Amino acid sequence: MASWQDYLKLLRNLSKTLGQLTQVERDKNAAAAAGDLAGVEECMKREQVLSLSLRGYDQKRDAMLAALGLKGVTLRELANHSPEELRLEVKGVAEELRRQYEIFQSASKAARNTLELNLRAIERVQAVRAGDAAQAEEQRKNHQTDFRA
Question: Rounded to the nearest 5 degrees, what angle is found at the Cα of 25, between the Cα atoms of 76 and 61?
């Protein structure tokens, strides 16, 4: 049977993981801005690992909410359903989790925008290079001399 303390510990761990994911998004943004494709790929790998952790937390959270009789209770409403002696602690943990999520969303949006901008720039460079390669090939063909004996 889940206890309120177990649930609060889960929410704290979830906040910590969101903080780590936020840092990965910041690192990905910096790598994308610098054109560091290897750095972006490394961040995406770290992001996948943390995303799996979040899924695990989500499953545990659902089970704990059901065990506490809180199925369907939102994070904002959680303090109103908590025992009186834990109300302030529950409110603080819930606020921290919401804050971490908002920070993560902001960092994620910035990284996504930077990746999109740089992807367009990369596509333009590739198009120019492809055009230059096609033009060079055409010039090579036009300058070839056919020596037949």
Answer: 35
